[in-house]
Amino acid sequence: METLQDLIDLPWMRTVLGVLALLALAWLAGQLVRRLLLRVLRGITRRTAWQWDDALFGRNTFLWLARMVPAWVIQYGIVLVPGVPAGAERLIGSLMTALLVLLVAMAISTALSALEDIYRETPRGQQRSIKGLVQLVKLGLFVVAALIIIAAITGQHVGLLLSGLGAMSAVLMLIFKDTILGFVAGVQLSSNDMLRVGDWIEMPQLHADGDVIDIALHTVKVRNWDKTITSIPSWRLISDSYKNWRGMQETGGRRIKRALYIDAASVHFLDEAALRRLSPLRLLADYLPSKERDVAQWNQAHDAAAEVPANRRRLTNLGTFRAYVQAYLDGHPQIHHELSCMVRQLASGPQGIPLELYCFTSTVDWADYEGIQADIFDHLFALLPEFGLALYQQPSGQDMRALAASESRADRRFASAVGV
For residues 193-210, b (16+ Cβ closer than 10 Å) or e, as one string? Predict the structure, then answer.
């Protein structure tokens, strides 16, 4: 017993026991705060209708604050430990101060993240992201925290450190070049409402074609339609061009701009038999009688000249078909009738006569849009023979084989006829 008492009475042993007791007290204080205080706060946040407290708890802001308690206990309790040198006390105090600054910075950082979460749930937050701004504030926060920590550990004044940073401004601008460019780009994108989360953008030079899922300080993430992710530097959205489809989505109509290529050899005037065949078509019920009256009146007014067939006005199968398509689109229930809707004939070329449909669907959904477009052209493809028209199509291998086979049969018949 005397030996144990003598050991305890030794100065260094008292110091060791005091340090162990201080560490145990710091650990116990930390556990009590984490288990009791945080549990109480969790119960309070669940009972309130506020969103900010749930966001702070979800981001562990209170947990980072609770971790400050052990550091406080050590910082203020080290002076009570017997036998600790003054230099060691100052060093431990400085280290605990630096740790407290770091914990406060982490708590503020998580609070900013909670603020961003709350903002993202608002209608405006679903359109405009503040993630880049929050990241910039966090960057400034940790830079300030780093300066305070260095000053606390080294004992230097913060102003002296800042003067040294001023001399290194050129190096810092080089290091934070992307951050500065990203911040400027983010401000322009946000202030001019050029980009929102959820926008569909196309940027072929960077292989981006899909929805914007994240707007951060340095990058904008785009989920492409093949489910890959493209990360675009924020400043590229200012310096380079890209297409934003938000206007189409807000308008509520998606454009159809596709042509039927008519074989020029199939275009001809309509004779009486063709007119009788087309008259029962419902969509031509107004067009044909009106055009026939106009043509008849013109021909009567130019009776002498109209005796020559080339001088008479006559309806063509292509013009009648164009009128049919226009009437078909005007009455289609899935075409947006408040936007442009026309059927126009473009300049003819090596692939025939382009008859282009220019209209908008009443939906912007991709699958529905493709279905509506396909149904319209399926109907028109099948209806072309009714007007005596044919699509232009380059000869295929099957056409070549059929032609060769017909020529071979013709040669055999000729040879048989002449007795060769």
Answer: ebbbbebbbebeebebbb
User: Bridge-partner residues for 255, per DSSP?
Assistant: 360
Phi/psi for 284 (5° steps) reads -105, 10
Instruction: Specify whether the CB–CB gap between 108 and 141 falls below 8 A.
Output: yes
- pLDDT at position 126: 66
Other beta carbons within 10 Å of 35: 11
- pLDDT value of residue 1: 44
Residue 102 half-sphere exposure toward CB, CA atoms < 13 A: 14
- Sole residue written with tokens 């291998």: 397
Starting at the edge strand that comes first in sequence, how are the strands of the sheet with 200-203 ordered?
229-233, 219-224, 208-215, 200-203, 243-244
The pLDDT tens digits of the residues spanning 329-365 come to 999 999 999 999 999 999 998 889 999 999 999 999 9
* Alpha-carbon gap, residue 108 to 101, rounded angstroms: 11
Largest Cα–Cα separation, the chain = 145
- Find residue 353's DSSP bridge partners: 262
What is the DSSP secondary-structure string of 128-196?
S--HHHHHHHHHHHHHHHHHHHHHHHH---HHHHHHHHHHTHHHHHHHTHHHHHHHHHHHHHHHTT---
User: CB–CB of 66/34 below 8 Å?
Assistant: yes
In whole angstroms, how large is the CA radius of gyration of the chain?
41
Q: Which of 364, 341, 342 is nearest to 253 (CA)?
A: 364
Dist. CA 111–CA 62, nearest whole Å: 9
Phi, psi of 361 (to 5 degrees): -75, 160
Structure token pair of residue 195: 């980009």
**Residues 74-90 as b or e (16 or more Cβ within 10 Å = b):** bbebbeebeebeeeeee
